[in-house]
Structures are given as structure tokens and as C-alpha cells.
Amino acid sequence: MIEWTRLATPQEYGCVTPEEADKWIEYIGEANHSGRFFHMLTSFITLGQKPA
């Protein structure tokens, strides 16, 4: 489920209206329930050590 809070920042900057956000959340929910939604997140973790 898409979290509403993740859309707060785009709305604050005026990128999307509350109505557009609602429509987008509804669209993603419908796609998810019908098996047409795929989400993938790639992330990297790095570790470094400062030489002595």
C-alpha cells in the first residue's frame, strides 16, 4: 500500500495537487490488486575505513 505521507513533500512543493495524488494512489492500488503492478527498489550499502 502506498503511504500518503510519501506524497506530502511533492504536494508541499506544488508538484502535484491533492486530487492528483489521490488519483495516483487509487491507480496504483487497482494495478496492485489486478496483478499489473511491479515495484523494485535497488539499494547499495558501502563501508569504508580511514587509513591510520
Automatic annotation (TrEMBL):
This is Uncharacterized protein.
